[in-house]
Design goal:
It is globular and about 85 Å long. The model has no long low-confidence stretch (mean pLDDT 84). The protein has 384 residues and is α+β, with helices and mostly antiparallel strands. It is 37% helix and 21% strand. Strands 3, 6, 7, 11, 12, 13, 14 and 15 form an eight-stranded mixed beta sheet that branches. A three-stranded antiparallel beta sheet has the order 8-9-10, with no helix packed on it. A two-stranded antiparallel sheet has the order 1-2. The chain folds into three domains: 106 residues; 189 residues, Chitobiase/beta-hexosaminidase domain 2-like (Chitobiase, domain 2, 2-Layer Sandwich); 25 residues, no CATH class. β1 and β2 form a beta hairpin.
Amino acid sequence: MLETTKETIRSQLDKILESTQFRTSKRCQSMLRFVVEATLANAPETIRERNIGMEVFQREPGYDTNQDSIVRTTAVEVRKRLAQYYLEPSHQGELRFEIPAGSYAPEFRLPIEEAQPLRQRLRWLPALLGCVALAIGAYLYASRQNELDRFWQPLVDDPGDPVICIEQPQRIYRFTGPRVDELNEKMLGDQKSDGAIAMNELRPTGEQYFSYGDLMASTRLVDLLARKGKSPQLLGDRLTEYHNLRGRPTVLLGQFYNKWTTGLTKDLRYYLDKNQAAHSYEVKDRTQGGKVIAAVSRTERPEDFAIVSRVFDVSTEKTVIAIAATTFYGTIAGADFISNREYIRDALRDAPADWWKRNLQVVLRAPMVNGSPGPPRVIARHIW
């Protein structure tokens, strides 16, 4: 380690943690502080993935590091933010913090002094040229991006693979108990059911199924993400726990009962509701006291509605894309919208130039054509 005082290193650490690159990520702040203090305490044995997971991210001692990549993904993010910090001219003369690839232990380096021999100064030239090449590459990449690329950029750029969490039906049952064969015969055979069925003769099995529309939507999004180099994991919402989503970008699909859509988007501007008296589904605007901006009958369905949300979620610390629809037809329309370059371009034609860095919600209307959703059209939009 560099021969410098611990006070100097801690002073630089405080400056980095208060910078614009780090103050927006508590997770990156916590990890960087932990590994620096462990290095200063000469405790390299504590700078191991499992121990960091336990001490910094409150994981259980026996957690599976292969399944839970929180430490690895955060280390990648810390390295990126450090690189961004030192790219600013005002920081180039400061003590440098580096976390080499393949390690979590930081290294501390003094900046190059002007009085150093030319040979020593030129040893940094390849790294400088590399940074220039990366910057040029990033600029060219950005100039080739279209609206669809930018919409998906937070998930594609994330080092981890995303989760696609699909709503599962709540009203699917199987018979259980000693009358299983008799009841199945009455339901599926030629006999007419002439007796009551007790509630304890029914067993819910919705966790084993997906709706047709949600499955079609997920298939489309899996294909899109695969073409962008990602391998999403498909999960049903009934069997998904918080640890499956934390630290991973997520796509949520479903209608009213995807428990994660309900929880992660409950405070957003546009939301779905049911009007029991009118027997209809409604899209409401929370900023206008719950004003109804669209509604459709639950029996007659000339059109369907969906709300597409793309937000940074503080509970998972990742971007969440959610499609909440009045029925699975709306889910199909929502997936069609977020996988179609022309639809995204038209919806964001007059949006702020940096819309892709912000949160957004789009309300869609899709006409029903011969039992299938037609082209989705935007009826409301909010970017913040």
